[in-house]
UniProtKB/TrEMBL annotation:
Its main location: membrane. It is found in: Cell membrane. Residues 1-23 are annotated as: Disordered. It comes from the Bacteria. The chain crosses the membrane at residues 38-55, 67-89, 110-136, 148-169, 174-196, 222-246, 267-289, 309-333, 354-377, 383-406, 427-444, 450-471. The lineage of its organism: Bacteria, Bacillati, Actinomycetota, Actinomycetes, Kitasatosporales. The keyword Lipid metabolism does not apply. Belongs to the amino acid-polyamine-organocation (APC) superfamily. Amino acid transporter (AAT) (TC 2.A.3.1) family. It is a multi-pass membrane protein. The keyword Membrane applies. This is L-asparagine permease.
Amino acid sequence: MSKEAVESAQATTQPQVAAAPADAGDAGYSKDLKARHVNMIAIGGAIGTGLFLGAGGRLHNAGPALALAYLVCGVFAFFVVRALGELVLYRPSSGSFVSYAREFLGEKGAYVAGWMYFLNWSTTGIADITAIALYTHYWSMFTPIPQWVLALIALAVVLTVNLISVKVFGELEFWFAIIKVATLVGFMLIGIFLLATQHDVGGSKPGLSVITDHGGVFPHGLMPVVLVMQGVIFAYAALELVGVAAGETAEPEKVVPRAVNSIMWRVGLFYVGSVVLLALLLPGSVYSADQSPFVTVLSKIGVPAAGDVMNLVVLTAAMSSLNSGLYSTGRILRSMAMAGSAPKFTRVMSRSQVPYGGILLTCAVCVLGVGLNYLVPSKAFEIVLNVASLAIISTWVIIMICHVIFVRRARAGLVTRPHFQLKFSPVTEIATVVFLLVCLGMMWNDEEVGRKTLLLIPVIAVMLVVGWFGIRRQVAKDAAKASAELPQ
């Protein structure tokens, strides 16, 4: 064969290897998210109420070993986001992992991935509006207002922001993240100063003696540390938002690697660093689930209005989470609707290129949460939090399975891996999936909450099966239509 013939053959075959199937759900979006928006969305996903509020109860239960739990879960969370980042660079999509599940697992995989993610964010949204109402009640001027009314107001405000444009969403999320980062940095500087000067904190000197004199790193043994893993994983939920946001940025190949790589040091600095400082300043028994651990420390050293400031920050974190949930589910549901596995109205977009149908559907579920706040205001947060944790674990597992199949296809020469890769595949993916499933299984040891949560799995499975039989004909019809429209 001549040299010209070889070059001609390479020219015709190479695009077939590198090209990726387009997702119909990606059409029509603007590219208005800038690098600073995506970077701050990544930070916002890594820092939320799980740290600002949830760390107090977990420190009380697990002690200083909570820092180890955050570190271990943070490493596996980084693996998930790194795998998703590679898939994003292979083919950016606003449908994110649902779009990749469709490509590598088929429509059933995309259906399960999408609706479990919707379950995650719709229930998280209920938890967020519940938290916002509870935090607002902290100030006496809001106490007379019923919890459900405050929850409804919060939902209306964030819905309005999401419906305007993606640029407004990105800008709001940028400033939400700035507030959270500035607060954490400020607290860490205060904590380091207290340690360096041996300033009195709550009647004792801070330092290693605070840990060694109160039971050591594992004051209550290993099991409490294992049991808090579920909550720690939930604290990292939203890191996968980077993959969704990449579909609406002009240069994902530049923005995504930078955002993903920075997640690891942020986890180490903000989560692990903060918990270590908290453990060195006060014994774990002093912290509680109903107060931010940062407020506990600041009140012990007499900082005026510490509770007001931190309550405002925690309120911001909850608003940020709700904002992100409406944004991501709108995009995910549109990707599903274009394939027939979500209601048709969720595929519609506004003139400002916002998929408002999916956003409104998520909002409708959150309105049910407003009803939950009316019926059982004291239990609303706990009920939905456990459902959301099941959904986020399933989402992460699906991302890792998709990545394993992607790498397998790349080794077979069917697709091309980008330069930004998850190392040591498939060992990394298998280890991550096993870790997540073990955390899920260990919840059985928690009779009060964890066991009831696991009993929801067969209920959710039945609902998914019934739903699939209800929409499978529409999925097949849309798939046949899409195939017929492809150029021959």
